[in-house]
Amino acid sequence: MLFSYNWLKEYIPNLPSPEKLAEILTLKAFETGKIEKKGNDFLLEIDILPNRAPDCWGYLGLSREIASLLNKKINETVVKTKESDEGAENFPGLEIQNKKNFNAYYLKMIKGVKVKSSPLWLKNKLALRGINSINNIVDAANLTMLEIGQPTHVFDCDKISGKKIILRQAKQGEKFVSLENKAYSLPRGTLVIADEKDILALAGIKGGKKAEVGEKTKNIVVESANFSSSLILKTGKELNLITDSSRRFGAGLSPYFAKLGLGFCAFWIEKLAGGEILKNAPKFENFAEKLPVLLPFSKIENILGKKISEKEILKILKSVYCEIKIIKKTNEKIIVVAPPLWREDLKIQEDLIEEIARIHGLEKIKPLPLVSEIKLGGTEEKNVAREQIKDSALKAGFNEVYLYSFVGEKDLNFLNSQTLKKVIEVKNFFRPEFRYLRPNLSVSLLKGLSEAKKYSPNVRLFELSPVFSKTEKPKDTGELQEDRLIFGFAGGEKDGAFFELKKRLSAVFESLGLFKIEYSDLLNAECELAKDLGGIFHPFRTALIKSKNEVVGVIGEPKEEIKKYFELNGEVALAEIEIEKLLTVGAPAKEYRQISKYPALYRDIALLVPKKTKATNVQNLIKTAGGELLADIDLFDIYENEKVFAEKKNLAFHLIFQSKDKTLSDKEVDEIMKKIVKQLETNPEFETRR
Amino acid sequence: MDIRKLEKQTLEQIEKTSDENGLRIFEKQWLGPKGKIRELFRELKNFEPEERKKIGGEINLLKKELTAALEKKRTGAEKEKQGFVLEKEWLDATRPVKPAEIGHIHLLTSALKDIALIFKNLGFDSVSGPDIETEWNNFDALNIPAYHPARETADTFWLNQMSNVKSQKLLLRTHTSPSQIRHLLSHKPPCRIVSPGKVYRFEAIDASHNIEFWQLEGLAVDKNINFANLLDILRTFLKEFFKEKNLKIRIRPSYYPFVEPGIDIDLSFDGKKWIEAAGAGMVHPNVLKNTKLNPEGWQGIAFGIGVDRLIMLKHKIPDIRLLHSADLRFLKQF
């Protein structure tokens, strides 16, 4: 909030320079940023902390705070009004229908005011906060708000219907017309100030058109009150009507200000517009007296970890306007502290300890090593596993990203209706692109790939993050999310995106010690993950990833229309994995596998097989027939050429034979090769070529 | 027979020969089985025995000298040739290359790892909490009153009602502080924990604000833990994380409903421009009560560190949105 240096000087004439003042405020009370020179004044941007808004949003409160910090006293305006002998009996009376929501309500009746334009100094003061000058009466009320922090309101007495001002809660749909001539239909329970016919004002929020002070106004009622702050905030929210006044009440003004504000406002009206203040105006008070806080000296040291002298502590408490008394109770010296009426934030011992610490100087509290039993910090197992996965992804050449947890409606168009039902929606999303919590990582990674692809020909990304979906009767919100891992590739590799990704993914699994990963067709798969992601992936270029027969993920190329939607040209492949499953079915500690010291013998084998034959099946046949002397097998070529092979394709394997116990002879290996060929040729459609 | 003259002529001839071929011809002519040295020895028989001995010695010397001269000439030529050939194999070591493709771990991951390690050394356990929270965990338990402005839709992302969790309204956590509540409700103090996580705010997105960012919550509850301990832990952490001599730390009063006293910690390298890096304070007695602890018996310190801010400061990143980017031109820098 912007505060004028010169205005503060009215309270504290010998203030330090604006820069020095800003520094003191920042270190001891409120962060003070920009200082702007304006004519012969300076505007200070002071970030009043929320718990101090009730007193420090006003110049009086802020000046008191500054005076405490500088150990000075402030000049207070001497508010002195004369009251007429005439009583307010002929003016409207007060009726309160809902006492618990009204903490204080004070009125003053002023007869025979002269409404005119305000003097220049007042206009200028209001302009500092961007408030337009209306007339001397309204301006006096606004001045009160700026000085004291207390909103007040003035009604034209002659426009009030009937004989009563009524404080009540609105019925559902009651009508109210504001000063700006805007009509509102009120929700039930809104706190209102009404006459016997209409609503005159929304309590604590906005004045109404009906009893507006105009040029012809002669007799007025000045109102200063205190309302239930939560009810004011609630109404403000329901009507979407947040005003300077509602903000102040919402922050929790002390009822003490209501009386103070009334006197101040009446004082300025009398000064600026004349009139006669009538005595015996109605009032209502409904707030408990503040209880003193008992603060043992020992508690201060226990909390702060520093001993501040008793003398200094008492001096600080007095400087913030606390009244103090010291008592002794079972060998303990206790300060009985009565905080000032205007400090609603000083309620418990810790509140006072904060006052002592900051005014003493936070920088004077020496950091103290924690004396405690020595223990090593622990890490959740889940986090250790996450780190390992990330390391493996890094080694396999993937770049880590952290994408938004939100996705838009259009991004989810491709998902099936069952999956969409589980998607969690943000109630108050502020852009359609951020309307839902992502139910999978594929959608956001496709966005990521698209972004990266604009500047880089080959993109390999991975992310490890939670995805969100509704579950049946969750016991904890943790059940609404699940960690997933996604890998993505976009580019133009010769092998095709799928195999480029599979190659690197296999390296990740191997690095994690997961050697028994299998891939099987996605089509007609019954698992939840496959159904949820089915809409994204090409049905014939996608596979389930299985570990120990359990589905842990899906790998595949997205459908053409998906690539088009995400503006991805070229080849793209994704693999989305459920981490929880991967780790529970996951790897034991790696164990040494013997490295043979005997030489290996190599053979190649090629065979023609029908096009739709799965290479892994052929490889498994060779493995079984080859027995344990077949140490390794490597599919090194797949050749498809319709002109040469018609409906067939040629597969070529390197076979590596090696024994752990001896040097193999050519003859032994040839024998095994014969077995392999025989085994393969039991399938009439296979034709081995050597 | 003038051996001296021969010596001079032959050595000059070796000197003049420039190629291996010439040297080989000369070697054959002079030192070969039918060469001139052999011939000279054969001619010795025509001399008197005394003369023979003297001339024989001179011929032997000549043979040695020629062998040595040839050897010397040859190694010289070889070196020269080698130098010539190797030079042809020169490569331009200054030629720029494209670095081999490797993966890159995200700055957030490496920073969170560094941070967790520092706190681990300080005896803090690392725990995690969910992104979706109940209203009670995120606000009420943390002493944030109903109708507090922070609960307004203008600051918090509320979720559409689904099957309720403990009949609570659900939201995306606005800070990692609910981790304090979760931990204290399920563990007996004394305790020391840190809890990193993503948090969400309904905010206009710009270079220094995003709707999602990372925080690290810290909490320690013990019989006597105090404000000076809090300052020490934060200072130790910040010095260790930045490893920067010029780092200046400023503590100033602040307000969070769940701590009292409350502070903010600002950082600066030049002592002029300050950046808020963390909020902290002594755990508010109401928070202890809400987690079934007696504030007369227990004291707590708590802090929330803005991880994105620390990273931006340490690595001079000008825009918070870059941390959510998939652009390899950014990712590959770290």
UniProtKB/TrEMBL annotation, chain A:
Residues 596-689 form the FDX-ACB domain. Its cofactor is Mg(2+). The keyword Cytoplasm applies. One of its GO terms (molecular function) is ATP binding. Mg(2+) binds at D345, D351, E354, E355. It catalyses: tRNA(Phe) + L-phenylalanine + ATP = L-phenylalanyl-tRNA(Phe) + AMP + diphosphate + H(+). Signal peptide: none annotated. Coiled coil: none annotated. Tetramer of two alpha and two beta subunits. Gene3D superfamilies: 3.30.56.10, Bira Bifunctional Protein, Domain 2, Ferrodoxin-fold anticodon-binding domain, Phenylalanyl-trna Synthetase, Chain B, domain 3. This is Phenylalanine--tRNA ligase beta subunit. One of its GO terms (biological process) is phenylalanyl-tRNA aminoacylation. Belongs to the phenylalanyl-tRNA synthetase beta subunit family. Type 1 subfamily. Residues 288-367 form the B5 domain. Its main location: cytoplasm. SUPFAM superfamilies: Anticodon-binding domain of PheRS, Class II aaRS and biotin synthetases, PheT/TilS domain, Putative DNA-binding domain. It is found in: Cytoplasm. Keywords: Aminoacyl-tRNA synthetase, ATP-binding, Cytoplasm, Ligase, Magnesium, Metal-binding, Nucleotide-binding, Protein biosynthesis, RNA-binding, tRNA-binding. GO terms for cellular component: phenylalanine-tRNA ligase complex. Transmembrane segments: none annotated. It comes from the Bacteria. It comes from Candidatus Niyogibacteria bacterium RIFCSPLOWO2_12_FULL_41_13. Binds 2 magnesium ions per tetramer. HAMAP family: Phe_tRNA_synth_beta1. Its EC number is 6.1.1.20.
